[in-house]
């Protein structure tokens, strides 16, 4: 830590010395630095058309920046260079994308966790809240929420400037919408199209509209951008929720015999189940954005922006699995150990075997979920430009709400025997009996529940910036203050009272048709084509039951209800400098942060209403000084060199900073927060060299090093927690858990493997990028890059979402009315989160994405485009430590989109 502080101080001192020497030798070139600190590139007046012009404009942004910056620019009005904002960034060196649901949602920059980066729309935050029932919130921006049609360009700042908001370790993404005073009056852009998912065999409509108007003297303008997007999500896969040592089942006679003869070892790990998972979703998004500009004089300007996004995330998730680890003491008849001590197969007897002792349970989880996220925001900017100074102010409000986040859940069980294999799934001893819906019924008097997890996020912000110009090598001074108040609310209520019955009682019976692709060839037909009820029938059945809304489950409410507020007050000073060969900036930012987390802390049996003392609030304050320096050497030739050094901070996800717990009562795992966490701190050093050897062409390389302190990592500890099955399903709890699994006692308490975040020490991310871009006279062109990022903690653990290698290769052709582009992206394996709450972090295997784009312009007004994504139907494969311990394997299908575009 002392070395990094010394190195950073030396870097900033060196910047002053270099700049001072340069001014003694060179004349001042004030044009090298922008007078508009909020938009240093000054690029709005350029009309972008086509792939080549788009790439050229992105290079202009990169070359003229006063930091290490990459950019992505729209190819035309309403035509961002991909169907997804995150996917568009995949061609930027150092950027990698996680595609859990088959498309880019969150991005990593220079090997850092997506939660440790910041994203802004027109320099203001956009509030976000969860859409997936039971998901855990993080700070990473979900780019699927933003319609790409509303954007004109985006910039990725890989090195900070003092004027930029703090909170990012890897990079800051600033997305820009189009403004009316930068477009011709009565500009119109319209597109209509359809998206199609091959795995779901369904298509959905899409449309977008942009209209812009301004008056004749260019002093007042208004534009409107609207988009409607639909997509069918169809994710099919095989999951293992967790593993247990064979020693847990030593009381079983068959297992004991195998332990005695050496065919099993006590340390061998057995999967708790092998699950066939089926996630279906018709995703919808409606976006409306309005920009109003008023420029009464050349010196004064006002911008008003309104944003509205409504997203529908309703989904139906099914899981069918024989929970072998929950079976009675004598129902396991055999186990088979394979590579690396993993038990890969076995057999359990059931009620269809008269000689079987006890019941074996195969569960069919049916989770019908409703989820509509509404995001609203309003932002106001004002700016006054004098001859040599300027003053600007910005304030706004953003709110995201998901009050409809609910789940209608039934869990029928079948008690017949089965054989299982970790690779090929489950085969029933009596397949015909397993296909009878009457045999899938409630057990222990329990059949399901209804859950509701409303959540919301709110962001209030304001800032004032002052700029003073000087006729000197230090040609611009920027000072400013910023205030940000961010709040998050999360409540969970689970209600019992679902009428006991069977699938036959629920009705609307059919059979699934999943796991049929080549990815799952050979998988058990018993799980591929199992019996089911429809989502509508399940929801109606739950809603028609006498749900006990007066008595929500105390454990769920107390463990998963929390509030969090983060107030940030910041001030900065930044000094820009420029000579004939050097330009850049020096700056210092002061950040005062107050965190307040509210949650329940209790002992004894959970009860409602909760005693007053159980709801506890904890507040902490943090003060940080964040220096930064950016030095750019550009003598007007084809080569530009950049150096940057900075100290940055970032914060753990909101829920990790609250003392709460999320429990999985069946697997006896859980996760929770830690209000004593300190922020990540990192000393970042970057160097890059760029050779602009031809128009629309560059060969560039960069080296980055991040020394991260207070690294936050989730660790597992045993905690004594209350198991709500003691109340909701006492029969199963007493027979399966008490005195057996988890050291459970008759009062309902068990030993849970709880994962909570802790500041465990330090970590480093070091690596480099190489990128090449060239346009050839033949109409062909190429964009390609390679990133190496090696991230490790000081204890040798991998950093989340850090792929050591990533490659993107994108040749294109553009000539006359025709354009085409093929994009190949590959990233090596990386650590990610577990599937269920408290599950051990899983690794995601190497992932390849191949996309294609085609376009044809009939004239300057009318064009058509076709896009194909995930052409290889790549597997999203996750595992625990070794690939012999799979956690999940999914396919999401190929995606196609065709659109007709009109502009005037």
**Low-confidence stretches at least 5 residues in length (pLDDT < 50)?**
1-48, 834-839
Tell me about the largest β-sheet.
22 strands, antiparallel, barrel
Helix content: 10-25%
**Shape by Cα distribution:** globular
- Tell me the distance between the termini: 58 Å
Mean pLDDT comes to 90
CATH superfamily of the domain at 41-175 and 372-403 and 450-496 and 552-872: TonB-dependent receptor, beta-barrel domain
Beta-strand share of residues: over 45%
The overall strand count is 48
- The CATH architecture of the domain at 41-175 and 372-403 and 450-496 and 552-872 is Beta Barrel
CATH fold title of the domain at 41-175 and 372-403 and 450-496 and 552-872:
Maltoporin, Chain A
Structural class: mainly beta
Q: Cα-atom Rg, whole angstroms?
A: 29 Å
Under CATH at level 1, the class of the domain at 41-175 and 372-403 and 450-496 and 552-872 stands as Mainly Beta
Count of helices? 11
Compact summary:
With 904 residues, this protein is mostly beta strands.
Write the layout of secondary structure elements.
Elements: H1 2-25, H2 50-64, E1 69-73, H3 85-88, E2 95-98, E3 106-109, E4 118-121, E5 151-157, E6 172-177, E7 187-197, E8 202-214, E9 220-239, E10 243-245, H4 253-261, E11 269-271, E12 275-294, E13 300-312, E14 315-322, E15 332-337, E16 343-348, E17 362-370, E18 372-385, E19 389-402, E20 406-410, E21 413-414, E22 418-421, E23 425-428, H5 431-434, E24 448-452, E25 455-469, E26 476-490, E27 493-495, H6 503-506, E28 509-511, H7 525-528, E29 531-533, H8 535-543, H9 554-560, E30 562-578, E31 582-600, E32 615-634, E33 639-650, E34 661-664, E35 669-672, E36 680-694, E37 697-722, H10 725-728, H11 730-737, E38 749-775, E39 780-793, E40 805-815, E41 818-827, E42 830-831, E43 843-844, E44 847-857, E45 862-869, E46 876-880, E47 882-891, E48 895-903
Parallel strand pairs: 4-6, 35-38
Antiparallel strand pairs: 1-5, 2-3, 5-6, 7-8, 7-48, 8-9, 9-12, 9-47, 10-11, 12-13, 12-14, 13-18, 14-17, 15-16, 16-22, 17-20, 17-21, 18-19, 19-25, 20-24, 22-23, 24-27, 25-26, 26-30, 28-29, 30-31, 31-32, 32-33, 33-36, 34-35, 36-37, 37-38, 38-39, 39-40, 40-41, 41-44, 42-43, 43-46, 44-45, 45-48, ...
